[in-house]
């Protein structure tokens, strides 16, 4: 009977050393970044296709937009790699500041290194939260653009019996900074706009941008969870000092 009891105590000890907050934040960060980067990359590709097909006739009219889209896609590759590594490091830091690690490496060394690591990650994570708030707000702009298009198309569908009123309903890509003001036609009106809204490309791009926005929100939530976790670990390590009591978050 001693073996099962020993196994149970061992399992409880291992589970007690798991940094659950950091683990949840890591899962949120992985899922959020995967959604943001994957859907965002494809949404940018579909946006270029829509602009080229329905809003611009000459290559020179949207060449700047095409370069910006390519640049943002490279940024997405970098973000995916950075956040993958950073989440792994933060999860390791969460394990490092648990009581199981303190018992392994010694009280003074663990506490001293834990304070240094926690304070460093608090600063980095805080800066990332500020930057990602801007990314989160920026990712809402294309959702707003496509929402306006969808709303305008719904209005056109309702007013199909009055063609004169329909032709006055337009979406001008130049007003949103997607194209220069001399781009032709630069806008879609009336039934042409309604046709655009019924295409598979429009619906797909709209849904992809919504998923990208959701991914940015999930990543922001993960970063906030990381910040709470690292702040808790740092505060508790500082308070406990050399008492040898482990921390877990």
Automatic annotation (TrEMBL):
Which GO cellular component terms are attached? myelin sheath; plasma membrane
What SMART domains has UniProt attached to this entry? PLP (SM00002)
Q: Where are the transmembrane segments?
A: 74-96, 117-141, 208-228
The alphabetized UniProt keywords are: Membrane, Transmembrane, Transmembrane helix
State any single GO MF term: structural constituent of myelin sheath
Per UniProt, subcellular location reads as:
Membrane
Principal cellular location given in the protein's record: membrane
The Gene Ontology biological process annotation of the record reads: axon development; central nervous system myelination
Q: Which PROSITE patterns match?
A: MYELIN_PLP_2
Give the membrane topology: Multi-pass membrane protein
Report the InterPro entries cross-referenced here.
Answer: Myelin_PLP (IPR001614), Myelin_PLP_CS (IPR018237)
State if Transmembrane is listed as a keyword.
yes
Report the superkingdom from the record.
Eukaryota
The family annotation for this protein states: Belongs to the myelin proteolipid protein family.
- Protein name (Swiss-Prot/TrEMBL): Myelin proteolipid protein-like isoform X2
The protein's organism comes out as: Salvelinus namaycush
């Amino acid at each position: 009977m001693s073996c099962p009891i020993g196994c149970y105590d061992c399992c409880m000890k291992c589970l007690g050393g798991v940094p659950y907050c950091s683990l949840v934040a890591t899962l949120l960060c992985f899922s959020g970044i995967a959604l943001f980067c994957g859907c965002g990359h494809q949404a940018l590709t579909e946006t270029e296709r829509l602009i080229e097909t329905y809003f611009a006739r000459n290559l020179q009219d949207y060449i700047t937009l095409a370069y910006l889209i390519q640049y943002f896609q490279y940024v997405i590759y970098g973000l995916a790699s950075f956040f993958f590594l950073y989440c792994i490091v933060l999860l390791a830091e969460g394990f490092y500041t648990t009581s199981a690690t303190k018992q392994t490496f010694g009280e003074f060394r663990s506490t001293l290194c834990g304070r240094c690591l926690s304070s460093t990650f608090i600063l980095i994570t805080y800066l990332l939260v500020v930057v990602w708030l801007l990314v989160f707000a920026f990712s809402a702009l294309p959702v707003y653009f496509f929402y306006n298009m969808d709303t305008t198309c719904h209005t056109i569908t309702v007013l199909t019996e009055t063609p004169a009123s329909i032709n006055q309903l337009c979406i001008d890509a130049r007003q949103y900074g997607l194209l220069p003001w001399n781009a032709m036609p630069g806008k879609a009106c009336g039934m042409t706009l309604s046709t655009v809204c019924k295409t598979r490309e429009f619906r797909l791009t709209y849904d992809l941008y919504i998923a990208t926005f959701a991914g940015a929100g999930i990543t922001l939530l993960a970063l906030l969870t990381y910040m709470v976790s690292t702040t808790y670990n740092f505060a508790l390590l500082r308070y406990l000092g050399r008492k040898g009591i482990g921390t877990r978050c």
